[in-house]
């Protein structure tokens, strides 16, 4: 039902079920993780009125609520480095048994998923500080702030062109085709690099691309 990608690593689908409403991914070598993308695989949707909260466990530091997924929001990218704040909730208690097996010495982190009613989820994520969650909508927000007068259609075209140029470098410089296989981790890496440029220098670099 779920998949996750740590930027720069292969897709993970090795979900471990804890009970009917809770599951985890183990994330080895957690010290090198900057961003993680979590998404529905498209095989099984949430039941009507339900979604999932996403939680992160750092060995020795406890759990943190990252955000949510739903049928209307089937994917999200979360920035982990520099945003960690330990929390304690009833949901985190469910994950504790699995997390206790993760040895702090090898820094295996836990990404937890809890299926809950949407009203409950919305209440939980409403308490999150804005910088804790990074999703595709954050791109448009950053670009709007950087250049509020930009024409939306032109800006969108330039962003897509930038992505295609980046992905083309991974297929030997040849034009992308519908059959080209691009790892999701590569897209996550592009997103991290792209947002870094936007934050550091605005969107002017989009006008200079070939």
From TrEMBL:
Task: Tell me which Gene Ontology terms the entry assigns under biological process.
Answer: protein import into nucleus
One Gene Ontology cellular component annotation held by this UniProt entry: nucleus
Domain Hikeshi-like C-terminal, which positions? 152-208
Q: Which residues form the Hikeshi-like N-terminal domain?
A: 5-129
Which Pfam family, giving just one, matches this sequence? Answer: Hikeshi-like_C
> Which chain regions cross the lipid bilayer?
none
This protein's source sits in the domain of life called Eukaryota
| GO terms, molecular function | nuclear import signal receptor activity
What is the similarity comment for this entry? Belongs to the OPI10 family.
Q: Could you identify this protein by its name?
A: Uncharacterized protein
**Organism whose genome encodes this protein:** Ganoderma sinense ZZ0214-1
């Amino acid at each position: 039902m779920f998949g996750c990608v740590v930027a720069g690593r292969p897709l993970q689908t090795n979900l471990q079920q804890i009970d009917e409403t809770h599951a985890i991914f183990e994330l080895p070598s957690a010290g090198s993780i900057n961003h993680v993308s979590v998404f529905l695989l498209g095989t099984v949707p949430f039941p009507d009125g339900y979604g999932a909260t996403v939680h992160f466990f750092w060995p020795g530091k406890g759990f943190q609520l990252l955000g949510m997924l739903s049928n209307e929001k089937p994917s999200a990218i979360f920035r982990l480095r520099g945003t960690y704040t330990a929390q304690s909730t009833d949901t985190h208690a469910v994950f504790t048994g699995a997390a206790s097996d993760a040895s702090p010495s090898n820094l295996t982190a836990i990404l937890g998923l809890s299926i809950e009613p949407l009203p409950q989820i919305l209440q939980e994520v409403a308490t999150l500080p804005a910088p804790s969650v990074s999703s595709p909508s954050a791109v448009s927000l950053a670009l709007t702030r950087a250049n509020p007068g930009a024409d939306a259609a032109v800006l969108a075209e330039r962003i897509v062109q930038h992505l295609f140029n980046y992905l083309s470098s991974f297929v030997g410089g040849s034009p992308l085709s519908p059959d080209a296989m691009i790892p999701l981790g590569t897209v996550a890496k592009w997103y991290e690099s792209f947002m870094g440029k936007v934050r550091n220098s605005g969107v002017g670099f989009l006008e200079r691309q070939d």
